[in-house]
Amino acid sequence: MGTQTMNIDLVQEMVTNYKTKQYLSIVTNTINPMTFDAQSVRFDLTALKAFIDTIEQEVALHPEYNLQDLGVRFYYSAYPNSNDWDKTENQDLAPVPSQYAKLHTLIGIPTAMINGVDSDFNPLDTKTYTGIKPTGVGCAIMAENHGDLNPPGSPSGLWF
Length: 160
Hints:
Layout: H1 8-20, H2 22-27, E1 40-42, H3 45-60, E2 68-78, E3 104-114, E4 117-120, E5 148-150
């Protein structure tokens, strides 16, 4: 896989499209009013590499499933209201700054080609190697979320 590039004018146009359409809809919404929302998420490269390495290592422990085309699907998501952060099921939010409440973020979920379908799965749970979503009280899956949002972070260094 060679170096991936995009024309900077196209990047600018796409970011501007988001800001003038989706972002504007969010901050002018009267049903769920917000004064601002995150416009970018920065993930630490070391954390992303560790996430990917763990996916590959866990899958390698189970060659009998012959999982192919491993990837990461990034879901657009939003943090819960800060009043809900003390709930048991939200304990994973402990290291997240409280000013992220209600803001957009991304959650990365491992994927693999399973029975011809690009499926979410949990590398730590072989029962999901068939593409079946796990359920149950306290169920946890492998995911990556703890990036740095902007805003509320400083806009210094942002190009778009």
